[in-house]
Amino acid sequence: MQRSRLSLMTTVRDPMGKTVDLDGILEDLDATTTLEGLQKITERVRDAFEIDHIVYHWVDSAGEQYGCGTYDDVWVQRYLEQGYLRTDPVIIGCYQRFHPVDWKRLDWSTKSARIFLKDALAHGVGNQGYSIPIRGPNGQFALFTVNHNCSDEDWEEFTEAHSRELILMAHYFNRKALEFEPDRGPEQAQTLSPREIDALTLLAIGYSRAQVAQTLSISEHTLRVYIESARFKLGALNTTHAIARALSCGFIVV
C-alpha cells in the first residue's frame, strides 16, 4: 500500500510551554526498519512530552504479540508471569472500544482489577493513563498508551492538549509495526491518492471535517473534493460507507 505523509506543523507547544518536534518524530518513525528502532522512538516520545511512560503493544494477524515501551523490565516480566493480559482492565476495556480512552473511564471495581492496579503502581506504573486502540485489516489489534503519575486536573489538561498528536503517533507506530509482520503478503494496488487516504484516515479516527482540513492545511472545500473523489473510487454511497470500504480493503488502518 502506498504510504502517505500527513502535512503537520513542525512543532507542537503544550500548556506547560514545552515544544515537541512532532514532524521530526514521525519522520524518524517512518525511517525505522527494526523493532529496536521503535523502542528508541518510544523513549524519545516519553522524553519529549516529559511523561513517565509510552507503550506500544500489538497482536499480529497470526496471534503473536509484540511490544515496545518504557515500563521497567521487572514489571514487564511480572505482567507476563502473572498472566495479567487476561485481567488487565486496560486491555479488556480497550478491546471493546474504537476511540481513545482515559483509564479513569475503565472498570476497576473487580477484585482482579484492584489486585492488578496495586501491583502496577508498586512497579512504577503511573496512576494516570490514556490508551488508543487500533485495528488492522487482518485481525491485528494494538494499543498505544501514555502513562504518568499526576493529578486528575493535570492529566486532563495534558490529554486535551495532546490527544490529536497522540492519535497520529499511534497510527504511525501501527503502520510501521504492520511492515514487520513476517508473513505479510504483497501490498494491494493503491487506488486512493495519499491525500484521500489522509482525509479518510483522520475522519475514521474521529476528527471533524474542520479538524481534518486544519491538520492537512487545506480548505474544507478542498477536503470535500478529496472525500468525494475517494467515495467515487470506492463505489461508496456516502462518507461513512467510503470509510468502511477503505478499512475493509486495507487502504486505511484504524
Summarize the structure.
The chain has 254 residues and is an alpha+beta fold.
Structural features, described:
With 254 residues, this protein is an alpha+beta fold. The chain has 2 domains: 168 residues, Transcription factor LuxR-like, autoinducer-binding domain (Beta-Lactamase); 56 residues, Arc Repressor Mutant, subunit A, CATH 1.10.10.10. It is built from 10 helices and 7 strands. The protein is globular.
Could you tell me the CATH topology label of the largest domain: Beta-Lactamase
Mind describing the biggest β-sheet?
5 strands, antiparallel
The total domain count is 2
Helix content: 40-55%
Strand order of the largest sheet: 4-3-7-6-5
| SSE series | EEHHEEHHEHEEHHHHH
Strand content: 5-15%
Based on secondary structure, the structural category is alpha+beta
Helical stretch count?
Answer: 10
Number of strands: 7
CATH architecture call of the largest domain: 2-Layer Sandwich
What is the end-to-end distance?
15 Å
**Mean of residue pLDDT values:** 84
What overall geometry do the principal axes of the alpha carbons give?
A: globular
Poorly predicted regions: 1-13
